[in-house]
Structure formats: structure tokens, C-alpha cells
Amino acid sequence: VSAAAIDHARLNAMPFGDVVFSQRSIRRYRPEPVPIPMEDLQVIMEAAVRAPNGGNAQPARFVLITDRARIEKMASLYKDAWWAKRRDEYGWRGIDDIPADEKNLLSAARLAETMDRVSAIVLAFGRARNRFGQAENDATSVVPAIQNLMLAARALGIGSIPTRLHPDVLERVYDLFGVPEGAYLHLMIPLGYPASPRAFGLSRRLPTSETVFLNHWGDAVPWA
Amino acid sequence: VSAAAIDHARLNAMPFGDVVFSQRSIRRYRPEPVPIPMEDLQVIMEAAVRAPNGGNAQPARFVLITDRARIEKMASLYKDAWWAKRRDEYGWRGIDDIPADEKNLLSAARLAETMDRVSAIVLAFGRARNRFGQAENDATSVVPAIQNLMLAARALGIGSIPTRLHPDVLERVYDLFGVPEGAYLHLMIPLGYPASPRAFGLSRRLPTSETVFLNHWGDAVPWA
């Protein structure tokens, strides 16, 4: 398959701005997972690799998980690791232990509990060594592809959220999926259809007048 | 400025797929830099912050450089640092030292030589410590915003390329822009109008049949 052969027309149903301004991290998926058509998954992955990467070295590799048994295994590892981290940090053992005002953690916990509802999972890898044999953080060559992937999914009505795996479970994940020496996981991205038809929408963010400066740190932008 | 007040209609002139499948790293800019309208820069930055980030902690901060004297200072630092690195690695001191078949390095060298032609520069920062006071790599909370930024620029006909700064010049950059303790630069993104009207187009990538695996590392996707 040559790159030129890819038909990306199915990603043109939405205008660019509407996709970007309605991408939200989706944490609630339909209880009965609906498979994502393989042609949708293909165009999502084609969109991913279009993103820039350092020197076109293309270190990114992806494992696309569609097999239900493997999704459930991954979901179970994710859930165990999520709770292990919260047990270590806060002593929490279940949703009832989380204070009601910790809204972000509560919805993250619900995601961990229901990760087996997603339709597919993408594991996104970089490589631990560059061509000079030096240890390297190549996030800047992998994460742009992940963002393209999530935007393309949203353009097709598919929700996603970037998640990290606890280091404790990484070795088990690498064994499960046959990940070779020298590759390492940046992010795990579940994909699925949102439980609510109103799930997509404008994300809550600090105003850019507080996070963007003009010409010098702290100096106001003209639209402030 | 509340997030809801942002009009992103100017980003809707192109359909989503056409933006993603024609984003290319732009290394040649018009010799006479044309200023980017501030309303374009604003909507580009609004698009940037819409990208997902870990736990909505929003560590990303941006310095948007539009002042010509500062762009020229930054361009000069970038050029010096670029050549310093190549001198250390390969002993090269100028474009004539680069072998003709090193096309990526040749175009990177040309970019370094002509960085003062860009219309604006964005410096994208994360923070070196998380809320537990631990050293942290928050690339996964900053780089998605950079990718949104570059896609939004492309939707407006503005070229960009993610670049790294040599560690040797970071302190000088931090001094120049008043970057506080605890913030660190992920990437520098020049923005400008491409020299060629045919600059945007499909990027050259390995086929996804080689970089995406189905359910297990090394196993072929159905479209292979």
C-alpha cells in the first residue's frame, strides 16, 4: 500500500475547526462495545503517521488491539495498575474512597473500571535508543501521531483518551504483545463510541490570555 | 476571554482530512517575512490548548514571538546552536561540508541558515516538576497542543516545523525571554508562509503495514 493510495475522503465530513474544537477526552463508552470498521481504523492510523517526527526517522510503532480477549486482558491490567497507584499514593482501594470533589480522579477511576467496554485499543511505542545508541526520549516524534490519531477518531464519531500505564505492569504488557527489546510504550489510547451523544464539545481550559505570552514570559497577548 | 467566546470559523475553510493529509514540515519560507494577522495567531493558540493533557493539569505555556528583533535574535541562537551540534558530531562547519545525499540534513541546515525569514516563533514549555515536586517529563501534556497548533496553522496556509534547541543555548533563551525557574522548553515552532505554493502535500512515510501491527507485535494488519 503506497501512501498516495490512501483515500482520506471519509475524514472530510467535518471541517477542521469543528473537529479540533470538539475533541474531548472520552471516559464513558457504550456498555456493549460496537466494533469499529477496519477501514475506519486504517484511515485513523494513516492520519496518525502523517504527523511530523524528528528528521523523518519515524520511530513510532503501533499495536492496534481489536481482539476482544486481548482488550479484556489489557483492561484488566490497566484497572489493577490504576488502583495500585492510588493505593500507594492515597490509600484508596475503591471508588467509595475517592472524595466527591475529586472529579477528575473519579472519572478516571470510572474509566479504569470500564476499560473493557472500549472497541479497540492502540498502544503507541517509541524506541529507547537513537541511531547513535544513546538513550533518547522520542516523545516529540510519537505524541504528534497520537494527537492526529485521536483527532481522526473524533472526526469519525469515535472517542479516545490518552492514558499512561503504571511502570509495574509494563513488563507484562510487553510480554503479552511480544514487544521487542528497545521499544517502549509512550501511551495507551482506548477507542470507542461515547455513551452520551453529547460527549464531544468544547474542552474546559484556562484562558489563553493566561497561558500564552507575547514576546516575553508574563507579557500579555493583545487579545487578553 | 472565555473559551466559549472563541470563533473558530476561520479554521473551517478546509475539511479535516485535507488538513491532516497535507501538513508537511515547512523548511523554506518567503524571503521577505509577512506578518501573520493577530486574529490568526489567536485562533491557532486557541486550537493548541484544546488538545488533551494529563488530568487537565494544563502545564503548557507558550511564548509567541512576533517582534522582529526577537525573532532575529532567536534565529541567530538557533543557527549557532545547529552548527555547534554538527561540528561536534561530524566536524561540519558549513553547508559545503554536508554530503549531497544527506538530504534531510541539508534542508535542516538551510532552515537554520534562514530561520530569520519566519513570521513568528512559538516557544512551547512544560514544567520540570509535577504537583508532588517530582521531576517529570510532561511531553504528553504539551506535544499534543503543539500538533494542534501546527495543524491549525496549516489550515490557514501557514507553514511550521517542530524544532529542538541545543541544550547549550537553552540558558541564553531562558534569560532572553524571562523564563522562570521550573519551566523548560519542549520545542520551538517557527511559523511562516512557505516559499513555494506547492509546499504542502502528502508527507513521505513508511507504509502503515510496516509500522502498525494487529493484536501482537509483528502481526500484519488486514490492509497489508
Question: What does the model show?
Answer:
- The structure is a homodimer of 224-residue chains.
- Chain A is of the alpha+beta class and 224 residues long.
- The first copy, chain A, has 7 helices and 5 strands.
- Chain A has helices spanning 16-20, 38-49, 68-90, 103-113, 139-155, 167-177, 208-211; strands at 61-65, 120-127, 159-160, 183-192, 212-214.
- The longest helix of chain A has 23 residues, at 68-90.
- Chains A and B meet through α1, α2, β1, α4 and α5 of A and α1, α2, β1, α4 and α5 of B.
β content of chain A, as a range? 5-15%
Q: How would you describe the oligomerization state of the chains in this entry?
A: homodimer
Q: What pair of chains forms the biggest interface?
A: A-B, 88 and 89 residues
Global structural class of chain A: alpha+beta
Largest sheet report of chain A? 4 strands, antiparallel
Widest β-sheet, arrangement of strands of chain A: 1-2-4-3
By DSSP (H or I, 4+ residues per run), the number of helices of chain A equals 7
Mean pLDDT of chain A: 93
Q: Name the helix and strand elements of chain A from N-terminus to C-terminus, one letter apiece.
A: HHEHHEHEHEHE
- Measured distance between first and last alpha carbons of chain A: 48 Å
Question: In brief, what are we looking at here?
Answer:
With 224 residues, the first copy, chain A, is of the alpha+beta class.
What secondary-structure arrangement, pairings included, does this model have?
Two copies of one chain form a homodimer.
Chain A lengths: L15 H5 L17 H12 L11 E5 L2 H23 L12 H11 L6 E8 L11 H17 L3 E2 L6 H11 L5 E10 L15 H4 E3 L10
